[in-house]
Structure formats: C-alpha cells, structure tokens
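In the previous lecture we treated proteins in isolation. Real proteins rarely work alone, and many bind small molecules. This record shows how such a complex is specified: first the sequence, then the SMILES for glutathione.
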Amino acid sequence: MAIKLYTNSFSRGVVVDWLLIELGIECERIEVAFQTEMKAPEYLKINPFGKVPVLVDGDVVVYELDAICAYLADKFADKGLAPALNDPKRGVYYRWLFFISGPWEAASTNKMLGVEVKPDQKGSVGYGDYQDAYNAFVQGLSEVDPYLCGKQFTAADVTVAAMLFWQLKMGDIQSHPAIEHYLENIKQRPSYQKFAAFFSNA
Ligand SMILES: N[C@@H](CCC(=O)N[C@@H](CS)C(=O)NCC(=O)O)C(=O)O
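The predicted 3D structure, ligand included, written as tokens:
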C-alpha cells in the first residue's frame, strides 16, 4: 500500500517533498485545500489540528513535520538519512530535530506575535527568551561541518535548513556567518535545487 502524504504545495509540506527526493522514494501526494478540505470532519479525523502535512502509512498516522521526517528517515534507514540507533550522533540528531520543532518554532512564533519574555519569566519559558534561542542556534551551527551530524547529511538537515531558508526569505531571522556557511553546504546538494523550485512558490 502506497504511503500517503496529505499536503499543500504552499505549506511546510514542501519540506517532506525535499526529504522524499533525498530518500529517492515517492508517496501518493494528496493536495488538501486550506480552510475548506483541511477543516472538513473527515480530514479532522486524520489530523485534529486541521493542518498539513500528514503522512499515512497503512494504519500509522503521523502529523507534525519533524515527526514525519524522522519517521521516514527511520523507515528507510538503508538510505542513511538518520544516524543508526547505536551511533553517538543519534543524540545530536535528536537535539536538532527537537530544537527546531520545539524551542525554535515557539521562540520565532512568539517574536512574530510580539510576545516578549521578561527577564523574570525566562526560567519558566522553555527557550528562555528569543535572544537565548538565537544564540544557542548560531552557536550550534558554528560547530557543524559540513552538516549537523558531521559528514552524514540527515533528515535534521532538511528540517533545520528549510526553516532557515524560509525565515531568511521572510526576514524573520537575522543572518549570521554561521547560518550562511551552513546553508552554503546545503546548497551544494542536488536535492536542494529541486527544493528551491518548490520553495520559491511556497
Ligand atoms: N506543528 C505543525 C504545524 C503545521 C502547520 O501549521 N501547517 C500549516 C501550513 S504550513 C497549516 O496547515 N495551516 C492551515 C491552518 O491552520 O488552517 C507541523 O510542524 O507540522
């Protein structure tokens, strides 16, 4: 049975498209319209958030972009897009996947909404404040060479790089030499050219 990807070409679903290119596999791609199909009762049974992307693999339903990418990288482990379970780099891999979908997304969204964390609130906020999250991000990137897990390009590179490309395009992140250097490495990958085409439409 084909794996199904519920997505929209103008959404973060394009990040899954990029990963699929790296994996060299295809899914049945189901385009879901914003507002209408995404909020229809039958779609809400698949994803109660009424959002894309969603991956359906037989009885397994995965929503949350980074979970989808991690799931696919593990399912097609022979493609080498995730460090092996017993590889110490697995920890670094998890760190980046969870950092980008958790603290970084929250910090960025709150910044966009104008929610400022006061110094005495930082201890209760998972990412501290935006500047803390940004500093941790660029500090981490300044240590990578050429990819987040060293020589091995992984699904975490797909999600982290996609976030950076998007935020730079939208003016939602201040650039930094560590960001530029990392993205130059990513741009060398043949898959990036195809992603850039999706992305320029998103
Ligand atoms: N945390 C989710 C966020 C998904 C999300 O916000 N998707 C947007 C498109 S990029 C969406 O479907 N928005 C439609 C809506 O909320 O009505 C993930 O990482 O997959």
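Summary for your notes: The chain is about 50% helix and 10% strand. Residues 11-12, 34, 38, 50-52, 64-65 surround glutathione (CB under 6 Å).
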